[in-house]
Amino acid sequence: MDKSELSLPPGPRALPWLGHLPAFLADPLAFLTKLQRDYGDVVAFRVGLQPSILISDPALIDRVVRDRTFERTQSTRKALGTLAGIGLLSLEGSQHLRHRRLMAPAFHRERIKRYVDIMAHETYRMLESWQSGQERDLREAMMRLTFSIVSRSLFNTDTGHEAERVDAALQTAMPWIMPTTMLSRLVRIEQGVYYGKRARAAIAELHQIVRDIVRERRASGEDRGDLLSMLISARDEDGSALTDQDIGAETLTMLLAGHDTTAHTMTWAWYLLTQNPTLLDALTQEVRGTLGEREVGFDDLPRLTLTDRVVRETLRLYPPAWFADRVNAQDTELGGFHVPAGTEVVWSTWVTQRDPRWFANPVRFDPERFRAERAQSVPEGAYLPFGGGVHMCIGNTFALTEARVILAAMAQRFDIRATPHFPVRPRPMVTLGMQHPFAVVPTRHTRASTFPSALSL
User: Fold this and answer.
1) If both were cysteines, with which of 103, 226, 249, 308 could 87 make a disulfide (CB 3.0 to 4.6 Å apart)?
2) 405: which residues sit within 8 A by CB, 6+ positions away?
3) How much is the pLDDT for 450?
């Protein structure tokens, strides 16, 4: 059929000028879920002045993430570029491929093996400070832990005061990203105008801290074997290197991606496990049966199969990257509908990964769905917690490894039970966190701790 004969996708009526912006900002997860439920896998809506289409068919999502004619939207690239600088999160085309190629060696298997030592060391150091029976805010603890891991991996040092400053600045700036990205669809002015005074100051401080660290390392000429040293020494085929500005942007990108996302994943994992005590006991049995009292290492990870499945199922139910967008450079067809050039094409892993067509009993926490024989039946595009195609997260192996190490060490040392003071609800910003602190009470395991025998989980 000729494209001129295709119709536009269906969708709800929009408010003048505002479009569906109020409904999106009020509860984006509910809004996107309702769009798919009421109108199907290709739905037209409007955020402010920007025409958009929500796609929820895995085949369509897989096609879009692999098609280079679809690029990330200007509003998203500007928002992330304002926060992190011009790096992988905001580049497209040949520049994006160049940065990705230069950074790839930092995430090879042998490098990940070295990072496991840092991940384990920082996790056990945190656990040594915990008192049995003392209530903790797990969300805050995971934020501090993952930040210490990624900063040590980046800089191979205890950054001390600088780490605290970066962490505080990120927490100030992050809540502004999603609302300002949406508002930029409404009024076409510079992205930074939307940020409050404190957020702008926090972003400026972030950039200054990283510039100082990069400048100091380059001046020293020291190779510490960390990510920063690799970025400084990386060379393209023609001998060209990344500039200090490039390195600063990629450093901030990795701080952002390696800190916030894993912290949220760990918080959600423990929320789900505390709601499912039989699974928690099985996880503890696997970890303690594998490790005994020694610390977890890289070679242990292949044997911690339930630990791995718990992480993957957590990422299905509560994907940190819950929303993604692209814009098509030319008229195209999606799902039998006409999509004019310049339309924003969006999808939500929150929607697709909770779709009963691809995941039976989708709201049930069931790590067994990630056994190899069951996972193979899930279509491409239905499970994308780290994105897909050319923009798949370059640090996905780092993040999965980090999550397994943290989860194993915590389950090995403590029995963790929830005592929530607030309703547990998701908070969709740039990443999917919790609205309120998550209180838990850890009880230290003794050497004689025993657990129910062999649950086939």
Assistant:
1) 249
2) 116, 119, 120, 123, 296, 301
3) 52
Which of the residue ranges 69-73, 105-109, 140-144, 255-259 has the most confident prediction, judged by mean pLDDT? Answer: 140-144
Q: Compute the residue count for the chain.
A: 457
What does the pLDDT look like over 190-212, one tens digit per residue?
544 456 677 788 888 888 888 88
Q: What is the DSSP string of 332-356?
A: EEETTEEE-TT-EEEE-HHHHTT-T
Q: Which residue has the tokens 């050039």?
A: 341
262: Cα within 13 Å, side-chain hemisphere: 30
Give me the residues paired with residue 443 across strands.
415
* Dihedral sign (CA 269, 273, 274, 280): negative
pTM, 2 dp = 0.91
Backbone angle region of 40, left / alpha / beta, with phi > 0 → left and psi within -120 to 50 → alpha: left
What tokens were used for 91? 């580049």
Q: Minimal CA–CA distance to 406: which of 135, 143, 136, 163?
A: 143
Instruction: Output the CA angle 417-421-426, nearest 5 degrees.
Output: 90
Which residue in 427, 437, 364 sits closest to 27, CA to CA? 427
Asked if residues 385 and 349 have their Cβ atoms less than 8 Å apart, the reply is yes
- Which residue matches tokens 């040590």? 152
Amino acid at 150: V
Q: Which of these, 30, 89, 56, 19, lies nearest to 347 by C-alpha position?
A: 56
